[in-house]
Design goal:
The chain is of the alpha+beta class and 358 residues long. 28% of the residues lie in helices and 22% in strands. The strands form four sheets. Strands 7, 8, 9, 10, 11, 14 and 15 form a seven-stranded mixed beta sheet that branches. It has a five-stranded mixed beta sheet with strand order 2-1-6-17-16, with helices on both faces. Strand 4 and strand 5 form a beta hairpin. It starts with a strand and ends with a helix. The mean pLDDT is 95.
Length: 358
């Protein structure tokens, strides 16, 4: 039996490699012109929360079965990836909240690669594992579920346009909660390209005062989550999906990993750095610098309902015959918060392959 895999990002490459290990013929179809999906553009840190209760607290709306599946199996899945020859860049995540490793994304592609049909639209008939990366690249679906897509910048590959989602829905699949949620970053409101998705992320909202284009301070610093995902989602719903981060001297001296906030601000494009005199509102007392950011979407959080074997489910909870979903085509893991999309892709890719192999 030949099993098809739709998509050659992390989830698809993992599923295909595992199926080959198990002796199955695999047909991998990739809509884009290259392998790796959005993983190729990321920092490629694959992680889980250090404590499962923290995972549940962070992502309260998620499916506890799926969360436990990812949390319990990730360490072994990472060991499998290392054994396949994927090169580790960091042995730790650098975040005391999390456990995992950082990989070289191109090395992951090389370690998992096989025959892939690229530049091929659409999914094929079952048995198929859907790994098409969610719908962040679809203006129609982003507008339907999240907000007018024209206001959001895409911080990901352009080929994840909901093919897997639509394929399964057309055959009776159902959706999870959290379809309006996404993971992304506030990025400089200026030109940037796919080589700068990590370096240009403006990850210092917790030290800023945050205003929208109308001068409304719409998000308090103390409410900014550790991943800053919640402030990005909030920014997406302000006018033009834009905000201003206004900083004082103390904020500029704060450190985010290996850089100060001041150094991050200096590295931002000049078009995004705004003089206080040019702000469309009166700056607060003590302000010394400001930058204009725009919400960007990396991947969606809601998606297809799956069980703990990665089988796509109908509304009544029965499974669709011969259809699995992995990566962010599957929803219900990070609902309400933030978890590693690459961890979800790695674990569910393996789980789907094992189940499809019978």
């Amino acid at each position: 039996m030949t099993v098809s895999v739709a998509g050659a990002g992390m989830a698809g490459l993992v599923a295909a490699a595992r199926l080959r290990e198990l002796g199955h013929d695999v047909r991998v179809r990739e809509k884009g012109t290259r392998l790796g999906g959005s993983m190729l553009l990321s920092s490629c840190v694959v992680w889980r929360h250090r404590d499962f209760d923290e995972f549940r607290a962070e992502c309260r709306g998620g499916d506890e079965r799926l969360q436990r599946l990812v949390w319990e199996r990730l360490d072994d899945a990472i060991a499998w990836l290392v054994a396949r020859g994927a090169r580790v860049v960091w042995e730790e995540t650098g975040n005391p909240r999390t456990v995992g490793k950082r990989f070289d994304p191109r090395g992951v592609v090389e370690a998992l690669g096989g025959d892939v049909e690229t530049s091929v639209d659409g999914c094929v008939e079952p048995p198929v594992i859907l790994c098409t990366g969610g719908f962040a690249g679809s203006s129609e679906l982003v507008t339907r579920f999240i907000r007018p897509a024209a206001s959001l910048r895409l911080r990901a590959n352009p080929w994840s346009t909901g093919d897997g989602l639509c394929f399964a829905l057309d055959r009776g699949g159902s959706l999870t909660d959290g379809m309006e949620e996404f993971y992304g970053r506030n990025m400089p409101d200026a030109p940037w390209d796919e080589t700068q998705l990590v370096s240009m992320s403006q990850l210092y909202a917790r030290y800023a005062r945050i205003y929208d284009e109308d001068g409304v301070e719409f998000f308090a610093r103390e409410d900014v989550g550790w991943s800053e995902t919640n402030v990005v989602q909030a920014t997406a719903h302000r006018r033009d999906a834009k905000a201003y981060y206004v900083l004082d001297e103390a904020a500029l001296k704060e450190r985010v990993r290996d850089r100060t906030v001041g150094e991050m601000l200096e590295a931002a494009p000049s078009e995004a750095r705004v003089s206080l005199d040019d702000l469309p509102f009166d700056p607060p007392a003590g302000a010394v610098a400001a930058t204009r950011v725009i919400a960007s979407i990396t991947h969606t959080i809601g998606g297809l309902r799956v069980d703990d074997r990665a089988r796509v489910l109908r509304e009544d909870g029965s499974e669709l015959d011969g259809i699995w979903a992995a990566g962010v085509d599957a929803g219900g893991v990070a609902t309400g918060g933030y978890a590693s999309g690459l961890a979800q892709a790695l674990v569910l890719g393996l789980v789907a392959a094992d189940d499809a192999a019978g």
